Amino acid sequence: MIQSRKEKIASNIITLIFIILALFCVVPIFYILAASLSDEITLSREGYSLLPRGFSLEAFRFVLESPKAILNAYAVTIFVTIVGTVVSLLFTAMFAYVIARKDFSLSRIFSFMVFFSMLFNGGLVPTYIMMTQYYNVKDTVLALIIPYIIMPWHVFLMKGFLADIPVSLIEAAKIDGASEIKTFFKIVLPITKPALATVGLFIAFTYWNDWYQSMLYIDKALLNSLQFYLYRIMNNIQYLSSSMMAGNISIDTSSMPSETARMVLCVLAAGPMLVIFPFFQKYFVKGLTVGAVKG
């Protein structure tokens, strides 16, 4: 197909716009990486750049001073992310499939319940009592998994995908003698892989980035998630910096990495997900466009 002059110009303009948008997303990552490899004093004096200012690994040494603790935090977070994503995705898909079925008489009632929970929740105190007194999951890995098993936004997102499945396909499975469970696992799930990948990625991000549940329900250091462990390190850095400025401590902390350590924490927290995302990008983009245009 031969493009006209106007079409080529329009295509080049659109390409340029997307390149600029991509740079807005990528350049900050390079700034963070460069700052994490910079010397603290040089960085504070000369500012940020795309290349390290006075190459130094002191910030990494400071943050990774206790490798056993951070590796344990990584292990907890990886386990919670994998198990939580699989369990949450399964429950989300089952719930969404039920309320997406047009022949289910209570679908509107359940849909309203999900929508209502998006606007209002039980509050922190009732939730804490339920998790600690009724579920008895305090200081267990389940305390990091259970709160995010069913999330209303993910249910509605999955429902939008499953609503596009033709009813005739479900009816044909019934005629062939398939049960509801077999229909769901053998027919519905295989044809919704893009949707599962999209919602699953959102769920994985939620579990990976969570630190709040660890703060509420975890007292054992061995069960601290990565984000909460890094959050504690950042709080310690801020406390030492503020105490030094106020004159409350007499030790010399001028050489202690502060800003560069924060950048290292960003790299450690976001790095693994940045590596994993490209492998799911194909399904992610396809999943976002499925059902976007309806006839």
Give a verbal description of the structure:
- The chain is mainly alpha-helical and 295 residues long.
- The chain has a single domain, classed as MetI-like (MetI-like fold).
- Helix 8 runs antiparallel to helix 11.
- The longest helix has 34 residues.
- The chain is flat, with a radius of gyration of 24 Å.
- It starts with a helix and ends in a 6-residue tail after the last helix.
- The C terminus is likely disordered.
In short:
The chain is mostly helical and 295 residues long. It has helices at residues 5-36, 40-46, 58-63, 67-100, 107-119, 124-134, 142-145, 152-162, 167-175, 180-188, 193-209, 212-217, 226-246, 259-289. The protein has 14 helices and no strands.
What features would you highlight for this structure?
mainly alpha; MetI-like fold; 0% strand; flat
The CATH architecture can be named as: Orthogonal Bundle
By secondary-structure content and strand pairing, the structural class works out as mainly alpha
For the secondary structure, the number of strands is 0
**What radius of gyration results from the CA coordinates?**
24 Å
